[in-house]
Amino acid sequence: MIGSSGQIGSELVPALREKYGNGNVIEADIKTPENLREKDLFISLDALNREALDKIVHECEVDTIYHMASILSATGEKMPQTAWNLNMNSLVNVLEVGRKHDVERIIWPSSIAAFGPSTPRENTPNDTILRPTTMYGVTKVAGELLVEYYFKKYGLDIRSMRLPGIVSSETLPGGGTTDYAVEIFYEAIKHKKYTCFVKETTMLPMMYMPDCIKSHIDLVEADGSRLRHRVFNVAGMSFTAGELAAEIRKHIPEFKIEYKPDFRQQIADSWPESIDDSWAREEWGWSPSYDLAGMTKDMIQKLSKKLK
Q: What pTM value is reported for the model?
């Protein structure tokens, strides 16, 4: 897995090791994981170094690549050229190395950031207008086109899902526009108050991390003969910042929130409020397990123990 130390990678790696065996999963990142164990297979890798990636894939006889390295939306707007360089050139490296060594399968997550203001905002279809207004979104659209291109031209089995905002009890936010939905839990538990950087009425698609991990495993294991798409919408739940705050108050009644939108509000306003994932459900049986109430209860239980 490339980008194994990131928000998703740090939780996906243990899940893959549990399912496929510790010795069958290689972590690769420019940053060494904090919880690395002696028995874990870790290789230091700059995703922009194609020669190093080529060597790993060849020598380790890699048959599946998860490419998770990316600069996210809010951080990408602060350094758009860097975001383009990492997000695009690392993907090209993976595709070229995968093609050279006949890698069986590649998973590369896209994002709802691929959509834009001209995309239908409610129940956004899988096949629709993609005109994003952030560099992160631009790289995701370009990446989706590369996914289709390498599949059609070279027969490379690369699969992608458009992830919504991800909420995790294990890893801290990583520079995304939906980070408020993670920060709010930490602040509610520790300080009983939070200042939100999007409006109370801002509704966005979200997904709890256990469902996110499930989507990555379900898609890689899907029967390729059933897949008519290469890129899939995947939905978990949609809620407003105000609805999340109200759900948290059911567990922490004294919690207070105020709203002070910043530059991330404009990004959020360009994204869908809800997405249609019927193709994922039909073609590979996608089905999330958590709704807003279930996620909130689980987050508060886990973080309350963690933050004692």
A: 0.94
